[in-house]
Amino acid sequence: MPKSHIIEVKNLVKKYAKLVAVNDISFAVEEGEVFGLLGPNGAGKTTVISILCTLSKPTSGGASINGFDIVRQRSQVRQSIGLVFQDPSLDEQLTALENLEFHSRVYNVPASVRKERIEQVLGMVELWERRRDIVKTFSGGMKRRLELARGLLHYPKVLFLDEPTLGLDPQTRRRLWEFILNLRQKEGTTVFLTTHYMDEAEYADHIAVMDYGQLIALDNPERLKGTVGGDVINLSTVDNQKAQAELKERYQIQAGSDNEQLSFEIANGDRFIPTLIRELDTEISSISLRRPTLDDVFLKLTGHRLRDEAAKGELKDIVRQLGRRQRRR
Fold first, then answer.
1. How far is CA 45 from CA 151, 195, 213, in A?
2. Which one of 17, 68, 92, 270 is separated from 51 by 20 to 30 angstroms, measured CA to CA?
3. Burial class of 286 by CB neighbour count within 10 A (0 to 12, 13 to 18, 19+)
4. pLDDT tens for each residue of 242-263
């Protein structure tokens, strides 16, 4: 039996004066799946989430979540969703318990189950023992886990995660994803995700790629990787610019360059490498072969690497944190 669509987006447009942030996009998300929305910085991802979460109104087109219209039934939509945004939104002067008690009242969690729900979500993210501690004493990873607990408190049908692990160390990111995937398995929660991290994008059942406000690809990760075509060879030489020209002239290969190495796609790469080593005039420093990744898909579709976008995001996060520290002085 096919699953129903818990999110439906039809011809969505968002304009800011002459800027078209979201340009006539349509897609649907099945109930219980992890759906990834990827794109370069400024592609329109956060604008889409803001519209779906009723924080911004579309210029035209529309969408529904859990059967409720995002414009005409905003209250019902908000009761159906949980949010974890890039920027922290906890009250750091309150305890973890006080943050969740306040949120439970805002979202009309019944008083009869409020205490049980709070204990359950804090236990889920392993913060029950720290429930009476002031949030400003928490690490970045603990704050993210508390935000996740808050987003789950009212048992949302859809959990929106906008760069949920940006700036966190790899171990904390993995742990947070264990909580998210465990929730999906136990509760059937639909997860709508934006991320710059390739490993996180791999969790998605379906991925939509945005660029300049438009939807340029939508499929599952394996089929998207299949569009790259062939194996990916990474090559470093004593003169990459010379080798790049030689590859084009000798083999009609247009290799990309990221300063440190050349990269290109070719069928039967394992057979081509011995020929390349034997025939290339430019001295080879290193050569490797691998199957296509989502980063390769991202590069092919947008001209950027997903890891480059992650670096930009992390830099923004560092600058933001430095700004906060300066304001406190």
1. 20, 10, 8
2. 92
3. exposed
4. 999 999 999 999 998 877 899 8
